[in-house]
Write a structure and sequence with these properties.
Order of helices and strands: HHEEEEHEEEEEEHH
Helix content: 25-40%
Mean pLDDT: 95
Distance between the termini: 37 Å
Strand content: 25-35%
Number of strands: 10
């Protein structure tokens, strides 16, 4: 319990110290801080309205490619990421999801702080035979780097392909048009580093 409280305080401090890139991030970080106060179960998908998820934005050393997966449910190329499932360390979840979903072994965190924040709508769908109603993901993204010559493998229950996508060609691969706004923001933020 003491460890959970310490991690929660750290998470709130990290959110509070986050420097928004644009108005969307400014609004979303304020909202997430309110949701964290309102919902003690926000780190669990037991909360059917909104829960915390974590993503790695994985780029190669030259910053010319991003590692993406072909998502089985959304039928689109997308970033990696997943539910925190009671874990309050979002960096740890982002790292785990990046490795699990791509098969990549060596994944380096480039910056210890949150790279991006997004509240994302999730449409109703069926996952592993179970209906999942519409809800929100309060997504926390961290910037990672990997060698683009590493062997890749899909996590077949979630994605059917993994590939390094040329960073300037993401729009050619992504069929979820609403996510292009998020990916464009991530690319723009990356170019400022």
């Amino acid at each position: 319990m003491v460890e959970s409280n310490r991690k929660l305080v750290q998470f709130i401090e990290e959110l509070t110290n986050f420097q928004p890139f644009n108005e969307q991030e400014e609004i979303d970080v304020k909202s997430i801080l309110q949701y964290v106060q309102a919902f003690p179960d926000i780190f669990s998908r037991d909360n059917k309205l909104i829960h915390i998820t974590s993503s790695p934005w994985i780029v190669n050393k030259e910053r010319t490619k991003v590692l993406m997966v072909y998502h089985n449910i959304y039928k689109s190329w997308s970033w990696c990421g997943g539910h925190n499932d009671h874990e309050l360390d979002c960096k740890l979840v982002a790292l785990k999801e990046g490795k699990e979903e791509t098969g990549i072994k060596d994944l380096q965190l480039l910056h210890p702080y949150i790279f991006a924040i997004d509240i994302l709508p999730v449409t109703p769908h069926v996952k592993k035979g179970v209906f999942v109603s519409a809800h929100l993901h309060a997504n926390i993204t961290y910037l990672f780097e990997a060698d683009d010559t590493q062997e890749l493998s899909s996590k077949l229950d979630e994605n059917s392909n993994v590939a390094w996508i040329p960073i300037q060609e993401i729009s050619k691969y992504v069929s979820e048009k609403e996510m292009l706004v998020v990916y464009t923001k991530l690319v723009n933020k990356l170019m400022l580093r």
